[in-house]
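Course assignment 3, question 2. Fill in each field.
Student: A.L.
Task: Predict the tertiary structure for the chain below.
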Amino acid sequence: MIPCESVAEGAAASSFSLDFTDDAALCFITRLITHMSAHVSVSGASAPYVKPLQDTMMRDPSCASYFTLSTVEHGPRGVTPRARTVVFEGFAVDDDDRFALSCKLSSNSNKFAKRASDEVEICWWFSSARVQFRFRGPMRFETSAQSGSRNALWEHLVLGDRAQFFYPPDVLAKDRQDAVYERATKALIESRGAVPESFCVGLLVPLEVDVLDLNDSSRKYWRRTSVDDTAWEDFSGLAPPVLSVDAIIAASTKES
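Answer field:
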């Protein structure tokens, strides 16, 4: 059995592997829900994807902390797609009171500094539940010192996560990791709680949500039709994963 504190530390790390027992899984998901609640209560969320996502998290807590974030960036071969796994930092509410998925990043990272567009896609695969969520829309990057979402997330981060944002920008692969970490930790202490300028929060208020359940090949697709997150088009049906969700939309349109 994994102690609760060990699970909490693992959840905050950059990578981890856990063999969950029932008790450990319950402890982990409790920590996760507490983590999300540090940003906003999800009980009043109007976005239709929130409850299915929460239910899937409860069924498959080992995959609840990470998703794949895809962006379009300027690079040596022109504008090309990029994808990476990032930590889910909980639900948040943006300045327009809309429900959002949040992640942390550095303004020095390519996903921010070299982005060709704010349009992103999040792909979230829950392996045990055999369910995939895809979220699309423009990501809002919170860099202002007055941003409530940014400040709230910084206050919630453990020291190890905070120290990452104090790494020197000129760090080289040949540099000793312990020496670099020591420099970053020292800079963190000397900051006396100040949030570094490089700390950024990405908020995605989805325009589209596509859910594939491999247990029965069912598809759910929501498309936001309002500036806020209260009005959505809803499509559902059965389709194998090799087919696009467009097949579901086309079939639903014909039926109506």
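Instructor remarks: Residues 22-37 form the longest helix (16 residues). The chain has a mean pLDDT of 81.
Grade: pending
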